[in-house]
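Incident log, structure service

09:12 report received: a user says their structure output differs between two submissions of the same chain.
09:20 pulled the input from the user's history:
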Amino acid sequence: MKTAIYPGSFDPVTYGHLDVIKRAAAMFDELTVSVLDNVNKIALFSVTERVNILKEVTKEMPNVKVDSFSGLLIDYAGEKDVHIAIRGLRAVTDFEYELQIAQTNRTLSKGSLDTVFLTTSLEYAYLSSSSVKEIARFHGDVSQCVPDFVAEMIYEKYGHKHR
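09:34 re-ran on a clean worker, output below:
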């Protein structure tokens, strides 16, 4: 069985993330979307909230599982016996950063973890979780960036109603 992990913070999940999830799920028998509990970042949503959001948006994808982890991806992948990580790329600047991480993961895992890069579809290339949060923080409309129920949750976190 071909399996892969798509790790990330997903704070919040965007249509760009969902594009990568759908395409990766079509390539692999099983895809685990794994929320990273990154202690170095202050998240808008808790790990549990992000896992639940991802379960909701992937519920129609039978070969997609949602999980969370903390620590190194190579350790998590080793525990799951998964040898492929999925990463989405929006721009050349993403590639430089992601290439360094991919090479580090491959080296630290002694060659047992490879990375497959998927370029985000053009209509989502501008999206980032950070920009979605900034738009919402200032009462902007994020409905074209995230599913409706996610937009509502974001607005609620910032203490205002959906536009």
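09:41 both user submissions now match this output. Likely a transient worker issue. Closing.
09:42 reviewer note: Residues 106 and 132 are 31 Å apart (CA to CA). The domain at 3-122 is CATH 3.40.50.620 (Rossmann fold).
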